[in-house]
Amino acid sequence: MSDGTFLYLVRHEGQSSVRKFLKTKWFWVYAGAVLLLAAAALTVWGGAAQFQARYLFSFTFILPYFTAMLAFRTLLGEWKNGTVGWWITLPYPRVRLLSAKLVAAFLQALALYAACFAFITLLILYNAGIHGLGASSLSDLWVTESIFIVMLLGIAPFMLTLGLLLGAVTQSNWSPATPLLWMVFGLSGNALSWLTGAVFSQQPGTAAFDAVPRWGYAMLPVYWAAAALCFLGAVRVLSRHLKF
Amino acid sequence: MAMSVEAIVGERLVKRYGKRPALNGLSFTIPAHRVTAVLGPNGAGKSTLMRMIAGMVVPDDGELKVFGQSPGWKLNPSIAYLPDRARWYGSHTVSDALEWGERLLPGFDRDRAYDLARDFKLDSQMQVSGMSKGQEARLMLILCLARDVPLLLLDEPFSGIDMISREKIVAALIDSFSERKQTVLISTHEIAETEGLFDYAVFIREGRTALFGSVEELRERQGSIQDIYRKLFEG
Description:
Strand content of chain B: 25-35%
Number of domains of chain A: 1
CATH architecture of chain B: 3-Layer(aba) Sandwich
Number of strands of chain B: 9
Strand content of chain A: under 5%
CATH superfamily of chain B: P-loop containing nucleotide triphosphate hydrolases
Oligomer: heterodimer
CATH class of chain B: Alpha Beta
Distance between the termini of chain A: 29 Å
Helix content of chain B: 25-40%
Largest interface: A-B, 26 and 31 residues
Number of strands of chain A: 0
Helix content of chain A: over 70%
């Protein structure tokens, strides 16, 4: 991959996505409306004794699904846009073509995570500011935030490669297996729901990283092995089983 | 790459989509350094054959050799392929598209590409999403014609294109063929306008070879390519 084609392919994927994203003006209208509503809700209820800022992290349960869909959309876009013939006949191994999509989708996922966590951090700071909560109340939250980021990044390779495999299978002779893969998507997308529960039920005073049971960390290599299998499966499907 | 007299050889090629055979025992030879027409009605298997040569699909049975090798990505540096019903990336400008060609397609000649864009009246800052179908078709053709490669595959390059654009494309093809020693395959329904381009023809019916041979010999024996097409496929 020393001839620069890989980086160019990643850049090409990224540029297309960014240009499309910048055209979606309504996204910013909705994002602004959600931010205003959340700020208003925190102004009213954020100071209540039973409110805990860490509840705001419950949005993370949806991020694995988004992660898979970023990869799925990156691959399916070639069919949807009518460019698949150009892309698939590029004189490079399918591993390289798919790896470029994987890296591009991962970078998009990172941007999404950064935007989401920045959004939550902004709300937490706002809440602490208007209700006069001290800096000590924030320190635990940063650790909690780190746990979610670590676990999200840990399962991202699996969700991304699952998205690629789903995209490849829908366009292949193996398309009857698509419902099965959607079920895997539905179940595995819940990968962070146990984490949310564990963090929310955490006793005050417990070290934040102890909220994750050991098996939670031990599962990560299993996810990575599954990610490798999904990726190899996607390469195999693209190499031999596509239907045109 | 060593050139044989026969550039492409297919033997008993079979490709099925479900129970429907797209190619059903197709056998043919295509000579090197000639312009070959791949002709047949819709659904005959022309595009499947083109995709097979470009390595997009693999045969279920039979053998296909392109310059003595099996098709696949390793052979694709030698092939410029215009896919059937293809579109270009809507977010690209003309210059983005030509950069894509320059960065990813071996044998891509940037100067020639810009010359062709000028001939085709495509401004380098023109955005693909705002182009007419004819302009987009011309841009995609540039990405193929600007490549100095042994094999050029054009699948329905005139489909849905207006007459003026078609004439420009045919003129560019004639220029390109006269300048380069390439093997060219063109699948088209526009036989009347393109007949003069062809040295060789392969007629496909229901996934099998109906007839193939030198255009000159076929004309001597059976009349124009259009007449032969009518005889083979009418009724």
